[in-house]
Amino acid sequence: MSYKKTRLIPSRHPDTTAQTVFVNFIFETIYQSNFDGDVVLFLDPVHQVHNIDSDYCWQLVGGANTKKVNSNSGRQRLTILGALNALTKKTTIFSTESNCDHYAMQVFLREIRNDYPDPKIIYIFLDNARYNHSVAVREEAEALGIKLLFLPPYSPNLNLIERLWKFMKKKVTANIYYRTFAEFTQAIHNFFKNIEQYQTELDTLLTLNFEII
């Protein structure tokens, strides 16, 4: 046995058969898009609170030696909409201090199309948030030549970009204190601006291996 953190999974357990079928669909879509010169992306927003993520680190034995780190109020947060290319691992990022809604999604879809002006079709795998299913978002996607492909319910494990968010938190907010929201925001922007320095780690992390829960 080993002593480690528990792992959070959706309380409403997803359908394992539906997940397996969908994983096959993901690979079929990637294969066909690669053949046709189209693009496949995984999209998801993350809401990063201006606070430290307390995490493991090497420390001297004994409660009195436990490392202490400053924390913030956590009242401000940055919403980051991200799209991750399934093959090249290129990221398209849009950030806002507002909540993610159908307006933000429409803007982000236009950012994605600007990032990929050539492919005939952009396939996007995303979750079932209500704003993703809105008429406005669907119409915007259709006008831009984007096909929205919705993951099975309660299946974040099938969204490749979830691993990128976890990696970002490890590099940017794990046991790291930012006094101001501006410093915190800049650190996140710098992560994506210089993401190529993590290429070796990301190549290992962002493989097309999907766990069925």
Could you outline the blueprint of secondary structure elements for this entry?
Elements (H helix, E strand, L loop, with lengths): L15 H21 L2 E11 L27 E9 L5 E6 L5 H14 L6 E5 L8 H9 L2 E5 L10 H12 L8 H13 L5 H7 L8
Parallel strand pairs: 1-4, 4-5
Antiparallel strand pairs: 1-2, 2-3
Helix pairs in contact: 2-3
Strands, total number: 5
Supply the CATH class.
Answer: Alpha Beta
Global Rg: 19 Å
Secondary-structure element pattern, one letter each: HEEEHEHEHHH
**Total helical segments:** 6
CATH domain fold name: Nucleotidyltransferase, domain 5
From the N-terminal CA to the C-terminal CA, the straight-line distance is 21 Å
Major pleated sheet:
5 strands, mixed
Give a quick set of tags describing it.
213 residues; 36% helix; 5 strands; Nucleotidyltransferase, domain 5; single chain; five-stranded mixed β-sheet; 6 helices; globular; alpha/beta
Characterization of this structure:
With 213 residues, this protein is an alpha/beta fold. It has a single domain, classed as Nucleotidyltransferase, domain 5, CATH 3.30.420.10. The protein has helices spanning 16-36, 102-115, 135-143, 161-172, 181-193, 199-205; strands at residues 39-49, 77-85, 91-96, 122-126, 146-150. It has a five-stranded mixed β-sheet with strand order 3-2-1-4-5, with helices on both faces. It is globular, with a radius of gyration of 19 Å. It starts with 15 loop residues before the first helix and ends in an 8-residue tail after the last helix.
